[in-house]
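Z., the sequence and structure:
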Amino acid sequence: MFEARFAEDGTVLPPRVTPPANDGHKYDRGHAFILSGPRHATGAARLAAMACLRAGAGLVTVVGEAAALDEHAAHLTAIMLREDDGENAFIDDRTGALALGPGLGVGAQTREKVLDWLGRGFPMVLDADALTSFAEKPESLFAALREEVVLTPHAGEFRRLFSNIDMGDRAAAVRGAASRSGATVLLKGAETHIATPGGRHGVNRHATPWLATAGAGDVLTGTIAGLLSQHGDAFEAAAMATWLHGDAGRRGGAGLIADDLPNLLAQSLQALCEADA
């Protein structure tokens, strides 16, 4: 359904999008799981989950504590909810991707949860608090990473995790971070750079300053997870997600808020489908 495209210089181009097969099933597009923050800190996970579903994941489940799920239930209908029991919350042989970080809180509990989920071996997106929680001991995170895990730091989070990497050259910085961490690294900004431990590199310039708004990063996390659940290649899923996220932001323009972005993603995807028809 999705095909990543790049210019010769690594610039991310609009992805090629085709409709699902007529005889397709929702599980063909993967079951994505989003870990929720606690009660009164659930909005970030909700934004990620809505974006994940809009990006084409066949099913999306938000996992969290019971009190948090009560809040989600008041807002979500197409997205499933599952209580986090610490063991079987996301056991599903059709799991496509996991995402965690938005709204989780910074500290030991988040570190433990991240390392637990990483140990399950699924493709994953780590953002926000899932990154900042390792600022003092980043090597403990890096030891658990692999290429199908996408880290999505903004500049501040990047500096906390990779304090010895000079950010003067962002392309070189993201390559160095990917090599050091063993993960696919996406460095957010006006130009978003993506790199793998093996040296693949891309840069998305299709964006807008209107995306500098609370919650936009959570939407990007969910978009990556939605594409990763279907596509399987972390680098290409991250690259396509940054282009779509930027395109949705451009469609929103002045007055854009993060709540608008999942619906704008649908418009971007429909336009790409029609262009390739």
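The radius of gyration is 17 Å. Residues 30-268 form a domain with the UDP-N-acetylmuramoyl-L-alanine:D-glutamate ligase fold (CATH 3.40.1190.20).

Let me know what you think.
H.
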